[in-house]
Give the backbone structure.
Amino acid sequence: MLVLTCIATLVYASCHGEAAQAPVSKYPLFRPLLNLSEAAQQTVSREGPRYPDAYFLDNIRACRAPYAPGEHAGQATSHDECVRTYTILTLANTLAMNRLVPLLLESLHRVELPGGPHDTGGAANRSLAINTVVVGATHEAVAACKRLQQLYGNQCNTDGSSGLDDGDKRFPDFHAVAFGMSKLKHIVNALTANTDVLWVDADVVFLGNPFPELLATGADIAFTTATAPCGSPAAAWSEPEEEEDEEEEGEKGEEAAINGSAGEAQQPDSADEPALKRRRRLADDGDATAADATAATDANASAEATASGPLNCNTGIAFFRSTPGVLRCVYSLLLDMSKRAIAGAPPDEVHERARFAAFMPHCAGALGLRLVALPPGRFVTLCGAGDRGAEGGGEGGQEGKLGSAVVVHATAPLGSVGIREKEPVMKELLGLADT
C-alpha cells in the first residue's frame, strides 16, 4: 500500500510539473482575444500566415470566374490553372454581416454580366455576386452568410479562429486593427489558389463592373485613394526597431534590390551614403515622405489630386494579381504588421492601411511590380455621410462625384462612425428606402 501511495504521489508530481512547464497559450486560441499581440499570433504562426479553414480554397475555386467573355463562373477549376480568373473577397463579423453585407451583395447582384446563368434561374446573364466569397469572422456571421447565399449565390466560409469580436469596434480598439491582419491572411490564402483577388470591405457598393478597367491598368496591385483623413499618405518604409548592426548587414542587398527594380528612378548618391540609408535619413527629417511611392506608383493616377488636397492610400477596395511577386509582397506586409504588433507597437503603427501605404511601394519597387492608384472618379472613396453627393454634400453634387463611379467605398474617418451609421449611406447609394 505504501508503495502504491508513493507511485501515485510521483505520478501526480510529474504531471503537475509538466503542466507547469507547458506554455500558457497555444495558438490558435478559441476564446476572445485580449490584446493586439494575441491577435497577431492568432493570425501568423512560425510558418507564416495561418492556413485557411476547411473548404476555403474549395470555395475560392468554386466561385472564381474567367475574364474571357462567354465563360461561366466556376468553369476554371483546379484542373485548369492556365486560365486567368478573378474572385471577389470580403470579411465581416456578425453585425456587419447583418447590416452591410446584404447591401454589398445586392449591389453585386445588380451587376449582370453576359455569358452564363444569372443565379440559378437560367437567364441570359449572371451577376458578380456568384463570384464572391464572404468570410464570416464568427460562427454566427457564417450562419447569417448562408441565409444570404440562398438569395445571391455567393460562397460562405468560416474564420472561427480569427478571434474577431462581434461588436461594433472602432479604431483604435485592437479588434479593429486585428481586422486588417485577418484580411491580409485571407488575401494570401486566396492568392495561393491561383486567382486574382479583388478585396472589398463590407461597406462597399458596386455601381458597375470594375474588371475591364482593372485589367486595362495592367496593375499587379491596385488600390483606391482618398483625401485626408480617410487615406494614409505614402511614407518611406523602415523596419521595426532593431539592432544597428543587423540593419547595416542587410542594407547593401536591400539597396541593390531597390535600385535594380523596374520603374525606379536612378539618382546619383554620395560615395559615403548608400541610397537606402539616405532615404531613411530624409524620411526621418520629414523631407521624403513619398520617396518610395513616387518610384512605384502609377504617375497618371497620382496626378489626379483634387482641390481638397492630395490623394492618400485607402485599401477598402484593392486588387491583387495572382503572381509570385504579389503574393510575396502581401505575405511580407502581414509579417511586418504582426512583428510590430507582437513587439507591442501602438495601434496606429500596426493599422493595415497605414502600413500598406508605407510598405507596399517599397516592396513593389524592389520586385518590379506595377503598383497603381485607381482613378478616384471611377473608384470613389466617400469620407463620411456628408460626402455622399446624393444630398449635395460632395463637391459638385451627385453628378459631379458619383456620375461616373463604378465602385463606391462608404467609409469615414477612422473611429468616427460605426457599422450602423454606414448602413443608411449604402442604402442611399442603392436607392433603397432607409427602413
In short: The first strand starts at residue 44 and ends at 45. The chain has 17 helices and 15 strands. The chain has one domain: 36-74+82-235+307-430. The two ends are 76 Å apart (CA to CA).
